[in-house]
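subagent[fold] <- orchestrator: predict structure for attached chain, return tokens only, no commentary.
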Amino acid sequence: MPLLNKLRTATPGSHGGDPASRSLTRLRAALTVFFALDGFLFAGWVVRIPAIKQQTGASESGLGLALLGVSAGAVVTMTLTGRLCRRFGSHPVTVAAGVLMSLSIALPALTHSTFALALVLLVFGTAYGGINVAMNSAAVDLVAALRRPVMPSFHAAFSLGGMIGAGLGGLVAAGLSPTAHLLTLTGIGLIVTASAGPTLLRHPSPARLASPDADGPRPAPVAPAARLTGRTRRLVVLFGVIALCTAYGEGALADWGALHLEQDLDAHPGVAAAGYSLFALAMTAGRLSGTALLERLGQTRALVAGGTTAAAGMLLGALAPTTGLALLGFAVTGLGLANIFPVAVARAGALAGPAGVAAASTLGYGGMLLGPPAIGFLADWFSLPVALTTVAALAGAAALIGYASRKAQVPVPARAA
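subagent[fold] -> orchestrator:
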């Protein structure tokens, strides 16, 4: 039996000597490594931002403009990466972006001016945006082949990688210069890419194996960008807006959560710093259990439940009168937001392939850019607790949009054909 037919008929529980199952298992492991590497490298860079700021002599506003280079490079590249994935395949693009991200992470430590920092961060942002679209596109194809909603597990690996990268970065920050630290991350990134990359390069994406004249039942189709209908485009944008609502909350809590705890609730600085860690830990736990949750509830109910939970949690986190209750609210918010972004990107990819992943990711990361400055302006006009309630409002909006899109015809991999 040809490999394509084996991939189509393989079920999640078929292990043992089935070469198709082993191939899918290897692909899943390799993709998981790339998701973890992405989070690890990005977090490693983030913890060295204060040292890079001092090295370049950048002011707060200058650093803010330089950091926009990461965002600008990522957002611009995401759309282009969708086209590259359609032409060359998501697996080779993932590996190439992994190499570029590993190399470019060392560049900020070599700069000594704000302008130079902005330029190299454009390169780093390009790699970051490219690997995110490419590996999510590869994950969408693999989810369809596995016929299980395992997308949250990949994003859990990203979260775990970020926690490890931030933790190790904090430990070595006092003993290693930014140059030594980031060059070490370059070496780690290249070694990991060289280890996991060949698996992706040897095994084509299951979606690319499909051909119009192939025999046997076909997996759920992914719409090519050229044949997207107006309704499909609107649905992709809808799922991108859901991703935006989630990423807005992540960005807002990352930049303003600790300040809210310390400034508004008089929390100890150590406790305040632990607020985002608790949020990130809860999000990781939620993503690790995401596959089981999606299999039990389905995508629509998981979106609605997640958005509702996050809205309630953030209202508690923003308006609670005590630090303990606020921390509980942060944790509940993390659990609620955990699987919304992965599901939104997966549904957009199931509709429109790499173009759908690129569109949803671009909107999603746009929300992460929008969140921190929006919270800042609202805090100036009203107060920080009131500003943080916008996270609850957008989480509730994500739940409403998810419910409104319940009849969208998206291939659901959770059910075997």
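orchestrator: received. Logging for downstream: The chain has two domains: 3-206, 225-404. Residues 225-404 form a domain with the Growth Hormone; Chain: A; fold (CATH 1.20.1250.20).
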